[in-house]
Specification:
This protein is an alpha+beta fold. Among the domains are: 3-92, Ubiquitin-like (UB roll) (Roll), CATH 3.10.20; 288-412, no CATH class. It is 15% helix and 36% strand. The protein has seven helices and 21 strands. Strands 17, 18, 19, 20 and 21 form a five-stranded antiparallel sheet that branches. Strand 15 and strand 16 form a beta hairpin.
């Protein structure tokens, strides 16, 4: 069996990587000159050889290049493009990312998704789009040591689409794309992370709480259909929902639609699975129009509506002001915090403001404080006459703040005695 003797180089002796150690190796590698294997298969063999013999941390080889800078196509047979004593250079993922970033100065980003990984207390992200030479790129990043960049031309994508293989995995973030090694931090284009605190229970009767079994193993008679409730926990980074409506939604850090797989294993080791998709209902925050519609039976004259959104909680803190049909000034902050003020109350406020020489006073009954969300309605008086003339609304959430001053037509406020 004839063999080809290759002079293989990994890295650049002048290039410094993490921990200050140059990633540089030179070695001799022999291959069968009559083999029908491709350059892509040679890349995988060299990767395994380097990881085994040089104890690197899961080096991922992306390309092979001739000594004078020509990239070897992965689909070519290596027996037809290589000859004895050829000097080839291995391009690992780190070098590939460094060199290809020049193609991202004017990229078109289609998707960006971030996700918290409890295994290393870090955020991972994925970016998908076109680079400035119209190639599809997939950028995956978890930590400094675990990252990936995958580039596909149109013909390569067509080839992948036409493959008969059911497994069309094209990118992953754990360093095992081309080897059998594995880590605890797998992250594919679709992430399935194993749930914790898994439990099962018979379907409860009426409104009873499920009676969770202590074991996830149950005995089922052959040819018998039974129903069970399944529970699982998926921990994510962020705050819990502040109300039932928020807690019924999947957390914003999780992909939509959210997919989860239930796997059942029988006593002989055979498995079956069911994939379920969950889709959050579209958000329907209160708007100026919907506020007026909800209060149409009370509004005599509408004056103002404003809001501050909490992006993390996907909630809206809002405030509305109007004069009701009784002639009272009404200030509402997120529905349940409401103050109604007739002319008698306004006069008393003016009197106390003048006595205390205070041109601004919080309106009773309108202060909203819940975790990182705060709302205030402040009555404003003329600093010389202490006549009431405006209300300042201050709304603050964890991610935004709104301040708006609303002039009040005081002459339209009536006494309700």
């Amino acid at each position: 069996m004839a063999s080809l003797r290759l002079k293989v180089q990994l890295g650049d002796e002048k290039k410094i990587y993490a921990r200050g150690k140059p990633l540089f190796r030179k070695f001799i590698y022999s291959i069968d000159s009559s083999s029908n294997e491709t350059i892509g298969e040679l890349i995988r063999k060299l990767q395994d050889y380097i990881n085994k013999h040089f104890s690197h941390f899961n080096i991922r080889l992306v390309q092979l290049m001739t000594h004078d800078g020509f990239i070897l196509s992965k689909s070519d047979l290596y027996s037809s493009v290589l000859k004895d004593n050829d000097h080839i250079i291995c391009i690992d993922m780190r070098r590939f990312i460094d060199e290809y970033f020049i193609c991202f100065e004017d990229n078109t980003l289609w998707l960006e998704r971030k996700q918290y990984d409890a295994t290393n207390n870090k955020e991972k992200f994925i970016r998908i789009g076109l680079n400035n030479v119209s190639e599809l790129f997939i950028r995956l990043f978890g930590t400094v040591n675990v990252s990936g960049l995958y580039i596909f031309g149109i013909y390569e994508l067509i080839k992948i689409a036409n493959e008969k293989s059911a497994d069309k995995l094209i990118a992953r973030l754990d360093g095992t794309m081309d080897s059998d090694q594995s880590t605890s931090a797998d992250w594919f284009l679709e992430c399935w992370r194993e749930c914790q605190d898994v439990a099962i229970a018979p379907i409860p009767i009426r409104n009873e709480e499920p009676r969770w079994l202590t074991e996830s193993v149950i005995n089922i008679q052959p040819d018998k259909l039974i129903s069970f409730t399944i529970r699982g926990t998926l921990r994510v980074k962020g705050d819990i929902g502040l109300d039932n409506a928020a807690r019924e939604r999947m957390h914003r850090s999780l992909p939509q639609p959210f997919k989860f797989k239930i796997v059942v294993t029988d006593s002989s080791g055979k498995q079956c699975s069911l994939i379920i998709e969950q889709l959050n209902k579209p958000l329907d925050p209160l708007t100026r129009e919907s506020f007026i519609y909800d209060e149409k039976s009370n509004i005599g004259e509408f004056l103002a509506f404003t809001y501050a959104d909490d992006v993390e909680q996907e909630k809206r803190l809002y405030a509305g002001i109007f004069i009701n049909k009784l002639g009272e000034l009404v200030v509402k902050i997120s529905g349940s915090y409401t103050g109604a003020y007739d002319r008698k109350i306004i006069r008393a406020m003016q009197y106390h403001a003048k006595q205390n020489k205070t041109p601004e006073v919080d309106l009773d009954g309108t202060t909203y404080d819940l975790y990182d969300t705060h709302g205030r309605a402040i009555a404003i008086f003329d600093p010389e006459t202490y006549m009431f003339y405006a209300v300042r609304l201050e709304l603050t959430t964890k991610t935004s703040k709104t301040v708006e001053t609303v002039l009040i037509p005081v002459e339209k406020i009536k006494s309700t005695d």
